[in-house]
Amino acid sequence: MTDMAPPPVFTHLLAMTDHRATFEHACLTDRRREHGYCTDDMARVLVVATREPDTPGVLNGLAGKALTFLNEAQSFDGACRNRMTCGGHWTDQPSTDDHWGRTVWGLGTAAAQSDVSMVRRLAVIQFDRAAEARSPHPRAMAFAAIGAAELLTFDPGHPTALKLLTDYVAALPEPTDDAEWPWPEPRLTYANAVLAEAMIAAGVALDDEALRRRGLNLLEWLLNYETADGHLSPTPAGGRGPGDTRPGFDQQPIEVASLADACARAATVDPRPLWPEGIRSAAAWFQGDNDLGLAMWDPETGGGFDGLHADGVNLNQGAESTLAVIATLQQARRFSPVSQ
User: Fold this and answer.
1) SUPFAM superfamilies from the xrefs (predicted)?
2) Rounded to 5°, angle at Cα 285 from 237 and 183
3) Measured between alpha carbons, how far is 308 from 291 in angstroms, rounded to an integer?
4) Are 256 and 324 in contact, with CB atoms under 8 Å apart?
5) How far apart are the C-alpha atoms of 302 and 13, rounded to whole Å?
6) CA-CA distances (angstroms) from residue 78 to 71, 81, 97, 155, 229?
7) Distance between CA atoms of 204 and 210, rounded to whole angstroms?
8) Which domains does the chain carry?
9) For the chain, N or C: smaller number of CB within 10 Å?
10) What is d(CA 290, CA 203) in angstroms, rounded to the nearest whole number?
């Protein structure tokens, strides 16, 4: 596994984007207009666009589109719509499913990390509206908690962010005493590492050492559980539970990106080398250090492939997979030996 990951490439993401937003799906490299856009992806777009250092103008434009989309997605009570047609019509009603949590995550990240003052101001305004809502879904609340923790790095006393984090912590399940399966769910499902990352982020923001440590311990267990023969072997789309046959397919890039983001957050509060090593393993997974030894991205365009199957790679390059590659390589760059 090489220490040096390539830089993120935005060419395919920009090609997937029109005047309104980024299309959700692709057939190989061609955007599928008939499937439209989604809030989930535009929140991710806002994250990667605003945390890119020395942001070029084209990415500032992308962040602006994401902010406009997320603003239109929100209702007055903070809940969000998720799906829009290519003609600009919403097809669902506002809810607080995962796309709401990702919206809060994106807005908090933009407020804390954008180098454009107008983006920061608009992100805070939208955050204050969205973060008044609450979700019954653990991952939605975890994404929102990460966004709140991000905002608190920019404005440590922000009341809406503090209240969201406090409510998130109050709703967490009690830790399990099962050393073999400490995970707070009976099976791993999707974007698993976000549950641990949110605990770390909230623990730091609220100065709760026990919660911070719980998140680090869960993430360490997950990273070990998702590693086989020296490479990542992430939870497949069907989930993974105790005793499941491994490796499992269809593996999704979102799992790898979630691990990279969580390891990056852990690395800021815990000096152990396993976290940068986890990030490098995530980047290496896209480069072919995986269960089939096959590349999961196009290094020329930055397009991410949609899944690793038992019989090969799903070569469609949708927005979620492409954003997962970009996010992972951003973290790998942050924690590469040269950058430290």
Assistant:
1) Six-hairpin glycosidases
2) 50
3) 9
4) yes
5) 7
6) 10, 10, 12, 20, 45
7) 10
8) 11-339 (1.50.10.10)
9) C
10) 32
